[in-house]
Amino acid sequence: MASTEIMTVNMGPQHPSTHGVLRLVVELDGEIIQKITPHIGYLHRGVEKLSEHRTYHQTIPLTDRLDYLAPMHNNLGYVLAVEKLLGIEVPERAQTIRVILAELTRLKSHLVWVACHALDIGAMTVFIYAFREREMVMSLYEKISGARMTSSYFRVGGLSSDVYDGFEKDVREIVDTFPGHFDTYEGLLTKNTIWLNRTVGNGVISAEDAIDYGITGPALRGSGVDWDLRRDNPYSGYEKYQFKVPVGEKCDTFDRYKVRLVEMREAVNIIRQALDSLKPGPVLADAPQVTYPPKENVYNTIEGLIHHFKIASEGFPVPEGEVYQGVENPKGELGYYIVSDGGNKPYRMRIRPPSFVNLGAIEKMAKGSMIADLVAVIGTLDIVLGEIDR
Amino acid sequence: MAETNRAVIKLREKFSASVLDVKEFRGEVTVTVKREDIVEICNFLKSSLAYNLCTDVTAVDYLGKQEPRFMVVYNLYSIPNKDRLRVKAGVPEAGCSIDTVSCVWSAANWLEREVYDLMGVVFNNHPDLRRILMTDDWVGHPLRKDYPLQGPGREPYKGRLS
Description:
Chain A has a single domain (47-389), classed as Orthogonal Bundle (Cytochrome-c3 Hydrogenase, chain B). Chain A has helices at residues 47-51, 60-63, 71-86, 92-121, 124-145, 167-189, 193-199, 207-212, 218-222, 229-232, 253-276, 295-300, 302-314, 354-359, 362-366, 371-381, 385-389; strands at 6-11, 23-29, 32-39, 154-155, 158-159, 321-328, 333-340, 348-352. Chain A is mostly helical. By secondary structure, chain B is an alpha/beta fold. Chain B has a domain at 6-100: NADH:ubiquinone oxidoreductase Nqo5 subunit (Beta Polymerase, domain 2), CATH 3.30.460.80. In chain B, 20% of the residues lie in helices and 28% in strands. In chain B, the strands form two sheets. Chain B has a five-stranded mixed β-sheet with strand order 1-2-5-4-3. A two-stranded parallel ribbon of chain B has the order 6-7. The longest helix of chain B has 12 residues, at 38-49. Chain B is globular. Chain B starts with 5 loop residues before the first helix and ends in a 38-residue tail after the last strand. Chain A: InterPro entries: NADH_Q_OxRdtase_suD, NADH_UbQ_OxRdtase_49kDa_CS, NDH1_su_D/H, NiFe-Hase_large. Chain A: GO terms for molecular function: NAD binding; NADH:ubiquinone reductase (non-electrogenic) activity; quinone binding. Chain A: It is found in: Cell inner membrane. Chain A: It catalyses: a quinone + NADH + 5 H(+)(in) = a quinol + NAD(+) + 4 H(+)(out). Chain A: Its main location: membrane.
């Protein structure tokens, strides 16, 4: 019998499907994967360390750089955790706008996922279409916050400002046109023979293994586990909205693809319901120790000016204690664990990154399959290296 | 409410000697246990109380604030019961180690490697305890409180951040 030799191949960090700085050292027997050793790159923004040296408000711009595809979700998890520590209640209008923007962000993130996943496997058209649609959400971001990517729009206690006139019209235009676009993607991919051959039965991970590896989000639901934080641990008033939580059956790449596409349709549903329930009202909590005073007070009264200055430079004290807040990010459960010692800075802030934990299961998912299928497995996890390496 | 929590009652029943403290803050229950029994307790929480998802493993450095210096924190979630629980175990600076729970949840494998890398807590019997975010030859553990923000061997910047 011919003897076989194991070959070691470096995949990444420049490989187009490793999305940035991921390097996989793959040991191959022919084309079959025997072992994968991930080296998850050295981005090192040091967000956790930096946040120990900044006030609670100053940390917000650090959080949306974690996962640059879903900045508002990262803001949301952080401000919810700080609000929980403080024990303050956010007004209803702010909560509804937060939900609308969070779901738009989910669309934005999933659009990049479907684009890049399809491109990794070799479908170019979907990439161009999805980025075209994402542009609509991006310009909405720009109108709201002035930034196309890193919005930093949410504040502890509510929003940095109310939305502009015509916001509802713009959002309605998005929710009215997007379902048609989803049909286009499905038309291009769902029954495409090449797509099916590359995704069905690829990257299988059973429900039990997926939970064991701590996988969350669409990747877990693709394995048939019916679990969604928005429904099971509701925050920001998600309990008021009706939506389906899609789950897969075969636990493979195709199921995770289907789950994310249904999730996009459900996001449109949630945005519609939230728009219908949007009423006028304040967008900042009645907590003057924590929130910035209204601009007219800052400009016209000395007390307002001093107060604004104090909050901006010194921050605000937060009661001693520790909380954990998880939110359902497009990638999975993003959690903030904050320990406060009573000061104006987090004593310790830990970010529970979904991509990091999901990537931990890559060997389990890809072992024994062909190296060409590894590309599809990386794509189906929808990783963002900025979040993995924080 | 912490005293009526199902997990707390069961843990007190079964591990009365190892439960050091039970606290509730903003509706979240935290149980502090002895580090020697962490694997046994986690096994019990997973198999008998259905805390099947190990959401997070992390550590807090209480340098000069309290003894023991490190607190290893396990954020657990039960998918069937939709219930969260936080378990903590203190680890002293001398003999800075605790047993691994990666035999209970595979998710703990990478999370513990990160704690080891950034905090310097050693996990006994861990299958693959290597640095994960920093390079292999990196000196020091960046998330420790005595590790300077600007990095080692640099004159601290005297401006806003330092």
